[in-house]
Amino acid sequence: MVGPIRVEKGALVLPHGLRLHYDLKLDDDGQTFLRKERGKSGENEFKKTYGGKMAENLASSLSRVILTDIMLKIKSDLGLRPFLTVHDSLSYLVAEVDAERVAKAMIEIAEKQPAWWTTGAPPIDVEAKIGDRYGSLETLKPEKPRTEAA
Fold it and tell me: How far apart are CA 61 and CA 63, in angstroms?
């Protein structure tokens, strides 16, 4: 285990069991890693890869797991389903009179770190935006000031 990630031969296993497959080998130069990926033709082929790409894949995958956990908790607690998801954000439609109350409840849900999130992991940063048009949303001001990580 490395934090919440289980390492298996050829794969990194996310907290919910999803596997990021890494069929790696060294190039003939002995310096470059190659990863088996699906090429444009649809066939598997080995392509150059590097640690930064793997780290980005892992960070994006963990973000998706956290976002899914938050989405399911909002559905469970508030009975709401998102009408749109974009990268690391969820969009919901609620009555204007309920918008601020619901946004605050969503923030409270989203700020709770998942049980699998390891000690020392960075806090999950959350904000809510409210508006009657997607292009003109305004950030809900937090009631408590955010503290900067050391």
Answer: 5
Q: How far apart are the first and last CA of the chain?
A: 26
Mean pLDDT of 70-77: 96
- 123 and 72 fall within a common domain: yes
| Neighbouring residues of 3: CB distance < 8 A, sequence distance ≥ 6 | 118, 121
Domain that holds residue 20: 6-54
If phi over 0 gives left and psi between -120 and 50 gives alpha, with beta otherwise, what is residue 125? beta
The structural domain count of the chain equals 2
Q: How far apart are CA 137 and CA 130, in angstroms?
A: 5
Residue, of 144 and 71, whose pLDDT is higher = 71
Using one digit for the tens of pLDDT, what is the confidence trace for 48-65? 888 888 888 888 888 888
The rounded distance, in Å, linking the Cα atoms of 124 and 112 is 8
Residues 87 and 135 in one domain: yes
Q: In which residue are the tokens 């955010």 written?
A: 146
